[in-house]
Amino acid sequence: MASKLWATRAASYLKISFQYRGFATVIKDLKYADSHEWVKVEGNSATVGITDHAQDHLGDVVYVELPDEGAEVKQGASFGAVESVKATSDINSPISGKVVEVNTKLNDSPGLVNASPYESGWIIKVEINNADEVKSLMDPDQYSKFCEEEDAKH
Amino acid sequence: MAVSQTRDLGLPLIKLLRLKGVPILQQLHLEERLLRTSSDNWCIINDGTIDPTIVMGISGKPQELLEIESILRDDIPVIRRFTGGGTVIVDQGTIFVTFICNKDAVPGLQSYPQPIMSWSSLLYKKVFQGIGDFRLRENGILRAWRPQVWRECESITKNRWVHHTSFLWDYEISNMGYLKLPKRAPEYRQARDHLEFICRMKDYISRSSFIDRTIEAVGSEFLLRSAELEDAHCTLGSKFEPSSRLLRKQELGEAIFKSLTASQS
Questions:
Q1: How far apart (Å, rounded) are the C-alpha atoms in residues A60 and A40?
Q2: Where's the BPL/LPL catalytic domain (chain B) (predicted)?
């Protein structure tokens, strides 16, 4: 209870919307794919990463396979992978466009994906083709519900 | 062994592909193609591979994992596979069992690494039931249901997953000398070298009995349909290029250089 109160106060101080549910966190103003990636769209630029739900279920990330800058990504298609607990898991792009930057810090510190999935654990930045694609993604509330339903099924 | 024709309705269908002595690189290419381009569930059993081959996970660094000079001297092939996990050396004493499934094939199974490994552990527990206790106990405490006769790894896509296991039915002690102790090892391993940590399955079960029991265990969860290699190739998309590959000698040489540079800095 105390940690929830602390988290809420910290979120208020940092001016982020923080929905603490006792498990995975979801951030306001992001959009979410059903394959558990998030995207932050700012104009024709987007930042992509995997969600807290994803990193929690994957376990400790030990390696991130990054695409090349300049590579094309397509909504719903794989562009890279994370390795954790003897497994590689595809990372699928929630948006189509061209990769303009990759988070090279992940080469030496793949654990950033676990520690800070929405901030320093971002994976790629994309110059997007079609902003309308965002409409097919989930908002934070929809994504939270999606995660609850998914976990409840298993 | 004849595949039983009596199964309950409602079990997911799985195609059973039995191979013998197929080279591991060819097996990995087939698996990756089936993962990416097939919509069927597959169980592949490859009874041995022809030549001793080292197989590293996707992020494996040769300079950290391998005794490269010995490998180059003895001309041992080194493969980087498409799945995660550690390094194994496989040969004709290795039996491979791979599952390639749609994410909803196994009811109630979430397609994340740990649930899939737990599911496979339960399946192999059936295989080894009454054969031997491969649970790892230290000081009387159960550390892991981790038989030291197998190594497993996975790859998970949006809608499918592959779980492959290499079983050490037999192995050459000398081959283990090609592998270094991994930096990233489970705590219970406690820096023990490979030979302390593994045992030969042949001391517990015959080759054919293991394969039969595995098929029986798979049949308890799936509706089995035998398939041939030609069937598998027919379903494959022609454009897909698998990523598992043989490392060139030049790359291994460069890894030695990296190792020397790192030790001097």
A1: 24
A2: 24-222
